[in-house]
Amino acid sequence: MKLDKVPLRMEFLRKKLKWIQQTMREQGIDIWITFTREGNEDPLAQDLRFSDLTWRSAAIIDQDGTRTAVVGSLEVDTIKQSKFYDEVFGYASEGIAPKLKQIIGKRKPRSIAVNSSYDEGAADGLTSGMEAYLKRALKGYSKRFVLGEDLAITLRARLVPEEVELVKKAIVECEKIYDAVEDAIRPGKRDKYVHEFAHKLVAEKGLSTAWAYDRCPSVNVAGNPIGHIGYHNTIIRNGDFVKLDFGVNYEGYCSDIQRVYFVGPGNLPSSVKRMFETARAANDAALAELKPGTIGYKVDSAGRKLIVKKGYPEYKHALGHVLGRSTHEIGPLLGPRWPNRYGKQVEKPVQKDMVFTIEPSVTSKLGTCNLEQDVLVTARGYQQLSKPQEDIIRVG
Question: To pair with 283 at 20 to 30 A between CA atoms, which of 45, 163, 317, 385?
Answer without folding.
Answer: 163
